[in-house]
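Case study: Carbohydrate ABC transporter permease.
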Amino acid sequence: MSFVAKKKLTTFDYVNYSLLALISIVCLFPFIYVFSVSFTDPKVYIPLKFYLFPDKWSLSAYKYILSTNSFIHALKSTVFVTVIGTILNLIVSFSFAYVLTKKTLPGRKILLAAVIFTLVFNAGILPSYLLIKQLGLLNSYWSLIWPTLTSAWSLLVIKSFLESHPPELEESARIDGCTEIGVFLRIIIPLSMPAIAAFMLFFAVSHWNTYFNALIYISDSKKWTLQVLIKSLVIDSDSTGVGQAGAGGDDRIVPQETIRMAAIMLAMAPILLVYPFLQKHFAKGVMLGSVKG
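Here is what the predicted structure looks like once written out:
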């Protein structure tokens, strides 16, 4: 019978764990407040009161906001940008990174240098805006997708991961008659599923939280993303979104504050629901390729 010695906790460990627990509780308080206010019945809602739990539960704010055209338009816009953007991100990033792993590729060093150059230097906001304008992408969903098809950081991490695959697998596939595209689709992609899951989460969260690009490239309120709409609800009192929908008297039934909190909860919910299912692949995908021996 083997006995595993337990590590004796020191005073530093207790202090460290206590501080971490305190910071976690402090970080949870805003979320608890938003959650509680969003589910609070309008009849018992009191402004500027902290709600740890709703005095009376109600779905009035959620029913109201889901019935407004502005929120539905913003949800459709965000879903479109997230789904299409994530698919294109994965295709471009993994195919480009796979190309960069080929040392026999003509001009490989130039391509790699160009990728690293963009990691260090950025054109800035004004040149990017002028480029989007010249391409005719203003007020288009593609202005939120094309400029972010990939990034230098993603390419370098994926490239490092793909280089950890045994080259003998590709060689045996070529001997069996596979083309380069066949090797990529039948060998590389199946072996890269953990990394694909991890980067799918990265890309999806990035697109779902798109705010700044949507703010400067999209001026049509019907094409706003959720983050821009929520900013308008929370910060701009004269919002052209859900705020005006309640200006005709509906906000007397559903307080504006509960509408705002419900909108925030609805914007967070999809990521919170998807993350637990990808967490296992996410952790494995981030670590794969990080250690070489």
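For the exam, be able to explain this: The longest helix spans residues 69-100.
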